[in-house]
Amino acid sequence: MGSPRTKVEVKGLEARHYDFFMNLLTVGMYPHFIRNAIAGMELKPGESVLDFGCGTGRNDCLIRAHTGDGGRILGLDISEEMLAQARKKCAPYTNVSFDFKRIEEPLPYENEFDVVFMSFVLHGFENYDKEVIAKNAYRALKPGGRYAILDYNEFHVQDMFFPLRQAFIHGECPLALEFVEMDMKGFLKGFGFQKFKEKYHFKKYVRLLMAYK
């Protein structure tokens, strides 16, 4: 299942301690960063959110703080280990649920959600999978809804500061190197998205791109 070049499927020790490793790799900056990024999605009370690649559910608990009791959050992932953590983390919230589904295969949702969210997942897929994911997102969104992609921005790897360049080249999957060269807005226009909003983090190496249906 999936491309041999991808690192999307997280298993074993990495899955069981994913949040710890993310905090460690970012020298403790990740919790503050993700809170700010989610705040940038401009979520409103009562909105419904579909999270593609929800992982441990940490983001969904943060999203729930914005959408409140009247909202709905559904997280999808393919790691049972991470889904177990997500269900435990968000157990106090009856309007947050999780399901085992592959986002690069056709999904059943249609005109159901105000937001489809992805956090550092899209760059790990081949382009043919990105196409299916974009179709799934567009179909799942209500008219006027937004596809919020938190991931690497567009940049030239050779222009990065040398230590960062080495870390990126050797630490990320080959697909990430291709992802940063993509015209993501042009790509998404091909699936019906027209209006876009961008917010940047980490000296513009990371972007929250919101594409509207």
Would you kindly provide a written description of the structure presented here, covering whatever features stand out?
The chain has 213 residues and is α/β, with parallel strands linked by helices. The protein has a single domain (12-212), classed as Rossmann fold (3-Layer(aba) Sandwich), CATH 3.40.50.150. Helix content is 37%, strand content 23%. The chain has helices at 12-16, 18-25, 30-39, 58-67, 80-89, 127-140, 162-171, 174-179, 184-189, and strands at residues 48-52, 72-77, 96-100, 113-119, 141-152, 195-201, 206-212. The protein has a 7-stranded mixed β-sheet with strand order 3-2-1-4-5-7-6. α5 (80-89) links the parallel β2 (72-77) and β3. The longest helix is centred in the middle third of the chain and has 14 residues, at 127-140. The protein starts with 11 loop residues before the first helix and ends with a strand. The mean pLDDT is 91.
Write the layout of secondary structure elements.
Elements: H1 12-16, H2 18-25, H3 30-39, E1 48-52, H4 58-67, E2 72-77, H5 80-89, E3 96-100, E4 113-119, H6 127-140, E5 141-152, H7 162-171, H8 174-179, H9 184-189, E6 195-201, E7 206-212
Parallel strand pairs: 1-2, 1-4, 2-3, 4-5
Antiparallel strand pairs: 5-7, 6-7
Helix pairs in contact: 3-4
Structure keywords:
7-stranded mixed β-sheet; 37% helix; 9 helices; Rossmann fold; alpha/beta; 213 residues; single chain
